[in-house]
Structure formats: C-alpha cells, structure tokens
Amino acid sequence: LVTEKNKENKREKWGSKIGFILAAAGSAVGLGNLWKFPYSVGNNGGGAFVMIYLIFLILIGMPLMLAAITLGRKTQLSAVGAYRSIKKNWAFVGGLGILCGFFILAFYSTVGGWVIYYCIKAVMGDLAIKDPNVLGAIFGDFISSPTSSIIYQGIFLILTLLIVIRGISSGIEKASKVMMPALFAMIILIAIRSVTLPGALAGIDFFLVPDFSKINMDVIMNALGQVFFSLSIGMGVMVTYGSYLDKDTNLIGASASIPVLDTMVAMLAGFATLPAVFAIGFKASSGPGLMFVTLPAVFASMPFGMLFCILFFILVLFAALTSSISMLEVCVSYFVDEKGANRIKAAMIITVTMYIVGIPATLSMGPWQELHILGNLNFFDFYDKLTSNILLTSGGLLLSIFVGWIWGAENAVEEIEKIGKKFIFASLWKFLIKYIVPPAVFIILINSFKDVIT
Ligand code: PHE
C-alpha cells in the first residue's frame, strides 16, 4: 500500500496533528530518558550534569527541534532529499543521519533486548526481590551470557521491523495514544514511591543540587550528547517526521511540546531511579544496569509491586520501540524515497545488517567487554560515543548552520508563519540558531573528537 502511494507520488500524511505529536514524542521518549538519562546523571556527578543538560536543552535542543521540523515541513521530503532540495551538496548531512540511526539502533537494540527479557522475568515473578546484590547478580548473569542476550536483541529488531513495514500512520499512531499516557502515569507513581523511601533524600540531593566542582569537559560533552540523543535531534528523524505535516500545522506548538514532554519523562525517570538508588544502598555510578537493578527493588516495596513491574517493563518496551522504529524509518525511507527501493525488502535488509553490526555491542557486555576497538572503548561504548558525541552532535551543528545560514533563518520563519500567525520569538530563535548554537556545538564537538581519538 505504501509503495503504491509512493508511486503515485502522494505522501502519506499524519492522521491527525496529535498523531504527529505522539509519533515525534514517541521517537524522543525512549530508553534515552528511562535508561540512559538516570545512569548518565549517576556517571557524570549528579545535579551539575542535570543543570547543564537543562541549559543545553533550552538554548540548543529546542531551537534545533523547531529548525528540523520546519525544514521537513517546508520540503515535504525525508532528510537527504530535504537538504538536497534546498542546497544540492548538503545531501550528505541527511546521509550522516542515516549512518547515525544505523549505529544507534545497533546498540539500542542490545538494551531493547534486555527490556524484553525483563518483561518475561517480571511476568514469571522472578523480580520480586529487594536486595540490590541479588538483582545485580541477575542482571549481570543475563548480560554476560551471550546467547540469550543476542536472541533477545534479535527479537527487539524483529518487532521494530514488523512495525516499520506496516507504514507510518497505521502502526505508530494508534498504539501511542494509549501507551504514552500510560507510561507517563506509571512513572509518576514510581517516582512518588522512590522519593518517599527511607534514605531517599540523599538521592534527591544528588539529583538536584549541582556540585559545581564536578563540571568538566566530559560532563559538558555528555550533557550535550544526551540532549541530542534524548530529543532524537541531529540525525534527520524530526526532519522526516516534519515532512509528513500539513501546511496548516502550528510548528511552534509541535516543536515546543516534544522537548517539554521528553524532559518531563527524563526528570521523572531520574526521580524514579536515583533516590531509590541511595535508599537501597546501590551505587549511582554503576552504569547501564542502573535501571534494571534499582527499579525492581522499588517495585518490591510497593503494594501490587509485581503488577507494576510487569506493566512498567512492557511500557518501557513500547517506548523503546516507538524510538527504534523512528531510527529504522529514517534508514528505510531513504532507500524508498531516494532509490525507489521496495519498502519491505529495504527494511529487511537494513534490519539484518543492523543486527550483524549490533551483535558485537551485545557481546561487549559479556565476553567482549575488554575487547577495545578504540582507546579504551569496547563496541558498545564505541557505538554510544560515536553516535551521541560525534554523529548526532555533527548533525546538530550542520542542521543549525544549514537552517540559520544556508536556507536562511528568515526563510524558515516565513515557513513557520505560513499558518498566518506571527512567531513572537522569531528574533530570539534566529539569534540562537545563527549565533549561539553553531559555535557552542562546534567547540564541544572538537573536544569530543579529541576525546574519542585519544
Ligand atoms: N530519543 C530516543 C530515546 O530517547 C533515541 C533516539 C535517538 C531515537 C535518535 C531516534 C534518533 O530513546
């Protein structure tokens, strides 16, 4: 059906504006918020990281979100075509995004697989445990046993593939309407339980009160990478999603609500996880396993905890899938829109390749942990750094230069005002996108390069 539509040269549109918001928010809200944000806060010194994160979000993330969606809506093309239609030799920026989506999904699917495993564990009642040491051991045993984690990674990719080949509006929109609000409600409940646990205060303090001595270039770099990762900005997802918007959509509303929602979920995930980490006597800096060890312990101290536990991991899986489909979609729509490929075939080939590239990431949680492919980075860390700190950041930088200077912020504002309403923050936005975002991101990017190379 979708290929037929493409042949007729009519692009699908979102069924409704709320459909777009849900899908874009679905892309943004994912493991980045629930799994990565809390442990990044833990690894990067707590409140100081959160503070820098929020500053970057407002000064860099939000202006870029508007830039991306506007570019998509203007051109009605997915990333590569969008850049090219305005300036021929900029198509590579879209290409960079495809590469980035590919590498993110390669390790995102590792964690997606963990979530599936935890759904099953929760259903079987195996997570009704309060002791962080036991929970840690369960997690450790699982990720270090390569066969099962590789299988679960494959299942996650297959689920992603199945949704993507059903086309855009049918698959994504319907489920989001139920699952996203459910996730939101759920995480509020968990956060309330977490902050009221005895001993939680130290965690709240760690999360919210910035210790300025913790700020260094690494923290700054990781905070910016986290903003891009969490907002799905810098790799063409938002350009592509914006391209499905009608000319009468209010772009400002759409591009403000996504970062706000995304950040609320990230902060709530922080409140759900970090206070509990302190309360149960776990270490905030224990890395990628943080959510998987801490939250079951929180559930174990809640009435109906195991029911919550099951529901929660199912909702996390859903959130992860609405993000992973956006990554796969960017790759697939390139081959469909640009190369005239068959959607199903393209999606299948890309998914298989992703799986092959992604298996080493899963293995680096176990037997390949010490297999360093660059500096002291194993495959998992390498894909993570490569995407968050280099590719997304470069994509964000190029997007700001492109919209601010090449296409021109003026023209973008004109597109934004097409609905007949004035954009009151136009001059502020133009200033940020032209003079603040490019140099700020550039400086941080240079440092990331140094960091990854040395
Ligand atoms: N934003 C998603 C998350 O937070 C991850 C993602 C990054 C999705 C980049 C698409 C593009 O989980």
Automatic annotation (TrEMBL):
<feature type="transmembrane region" description="Helical">
    <location>
        <begin position="90"/>
        <end position="117"/>
    </location>
</feature>
<keyword id="KW-0769">Symport</keyword>
<protein>
    <recommendedName>
        <fullName>Transporter</fullName>
    </recommendedName>
</protein>
<feature type="transmembrane region" description="Helical">
    <location>
        <begin position="47"/>
        <end position="69"/>
    </location>
</feature>
<feature type="transmembrane region" description="Helical">
    <location>
        <begin position="304"/>
        <end position="335"/>
    </location>
</feature>
<keyword id="KW-0813">Transport</keyword>
<dbReference type="InterPro" id="IPR000175">
    <property type="entry name" value="Na/ntran_symport"/>
</dbReference>
<keyword id="KW-0472">Membrane</keyword>
<dbReference type="InterPro" id="IPR047218">
    <property type="entry name" value="YocR/YhdH-like"/>
</dbReference>
<feature type="transmembrane region" description="Helical">
    <location>
        <begin position="386"/>
        <end position="407"/>
    </location>
</feature>
<feature type="transmembrane region" description="Helical">
    <location>
        <begin position="347"/>
        <end position="366"/>
    </location>
</feature>
<feature type="transmembrane region" description="Helical">
    <location>
        <begin position="224"/>
        <end position="244"/>
    </location>
</feature>
<keyword id="KW-1133">Transmembrane helix</keyword>
<dbReference type="Pfam" id="PF00209">
    <property type="entry name" value="SNF"/>
</dbReference>
<feature type="transmembrane region" description="Helical">
    <location>
        <begin position="18"/>
        <end position="35"/>
    </location>
</feature>
<comment type="similarity">
    <text>Belongs to the sodium:neurotransmitter symporter (SNF) (TC 2.A.22) family.</text>
</comment>
<feature type="transmembrane region" description="Helical">
    <location>
        <begin position="428"/>
        <end position="449"/>
    </location>
</feature>
<keyword id="KW-0812">Transmembrane</keyword>
<feature type="transmembrane region" description="Helical">
    <location>
        <begin position="265"/>
        <end position="284"/>
    </location>
</feature>
<feature type="transmembrane region" description="Helical">
    <location>
        <begin position="181"/>
        <end position="204"/>
    </location>
</feature>
<feature type="transmembrane region" description="Helical">
    <location>
        <begin position="150"/>
        <end position="169"/>
    </location>
</feature>
